[in-house]
Design brief:
Layout: E1 7-10, E2 16-17, E3 20-21, H1 23-36, E4 40-43, H2 55-68, E5 74-77, H3 83-96, E6 100-103, H4 113-126, E7 131-134, H5 137-140, H6 146-153, E8 158-163, H7 170-181, E9 189-192, H8 198-203, E10 208-211, H9 218-229, H10 233-241, H11 244-252, H12 257-266, H13 284-296
């Protein structure tokens, strides 16, 4: 089970046209990341705008991802406000042939740690599909503790924990990952997110990178992942540092989603205005700046 949750997992956009999922564009993104050699695909993550889609749309996207991923395993995001909705999404993922599910504690009212534990316990008892714990406080505003990681990791279905970005200092990153590993069984993998810190996370002992950039620009993410997993830590850091202008744009423009959407649109991988409203696209000046960075880094090659 653990080998599905190691290496590079690409999180593609779910492009929309006129408020309808653009299936052709989504399939193109899936096929592109498969061709680049990613280890898995995670459909309907935050980059895939899962929270903005209906249950039927999510079921269709899950099916498209699995149907076009070939031999690459597909993990499907199932988070929703109500546990009953989560379980319905699990059913759709299982019917589509997903290899696992990604579960975030989606909420409007603040959740307690016991609320979140019971959510994961319920899902773990409901399905045989392995579960990735999705710790993304930037979107959910819920903060996991190492104690909660430990409780969740004891559930039989939990296979991986997707942690937020690690510290920039290499030694601090190692201590951070080691503290999580100390409370999480070996069969549960630890995967880093926060693309700018992925090289540090992999070098610090994370077994997976759950990657935004890999969903649209997979080649540099493959390079970083392979270097880190082959023990070439300095090469991984150098490859990540080369992308610093892109990481800086993520910070400046309020996160990675709008930036990656703009890149996908400019490269013809998604239609203009592919994000779900009310999320507004970046303006023409911002898009021009992104294009300059992409060209300078050779990311269109």
């Amino acid at each position: 089970m653990a080998n599905i949750f190691t290496g590079l997992s690409a999180f593609p956009l779910t492009p929309l046209t006129d408020d309808v999922v653009d299936e052709q564009s989504f399939v193109g993104l899936v096929e592109s990341v498969v061709a680049a050699g990613v280890d898995s695909i995670t459909a309907l993550g935050s980059t895939g705008s899962y929270a903005y889609l209906t249950a039927d749309e999510r079921a269709r996207v899950a099916r498209l991802a699995v149907d076009h991923a070939g031999e690459v395993p597909v993990i499907v995001g199932v988070g929703a406000l109500r546990t009953s909705q989560v379980l319905a999404n699990v059913d759709s993922a299982q019917e589509a042939g997903a290899a696992g599910v990604l579960l975030a504690p989606v909420t409007y009212q603040p959740l307690t740690h016991d609320d979140v534990f019971e959510l994961f316990r319920t899902v773990s008892e409901y399905t045989d599909l392995p579960i990735v714990v999705y710790d993304n406080p930037g979107t959910t505003h819920f903060h996991f503790s190492n104690e909660l990681y430990a409780r969740l990791a004891e559930l039989p279905g939990v296979a991986s924990i997707k942690i937020p970005g690690v510290p920039g200092d290499a030694e601090a990153a190692r201590r951070h990952v080691a503290a999580i590993r100390a409370v999480v069984p070996e069969h549960v993998t630890i995967g880093v997110s926060g693309d700018a810190s992925a090289a540090n996370g992999l070098n610090a002992g994370c077994q997976a990178w759950y990657s935004v950039i890999a969903g649209t620009l997979p080649s540099p993410a493959v390079e970083i992942t392979r270097a880190a997993r082959q023990g070439r830590a300095s090469d991984a850091v150098a490859a990540s540092d080369r992308l610093a202008p892109l990481w800086d744009l993520f910070v400046e423009f309020g996160g990675s989603l709008r930036v990656m959407a703009a890149i996908a649109e400019e490269r013809g991988l998604a239609p203009r205005g592919c994000l779900p409203l009310p999320i507004q696209p970046l303006d023409d000046d911002q898009r021009a700046r992104i294009s300059v960075v992409v060209d300078a880094l050779g990311l269109d090659d």
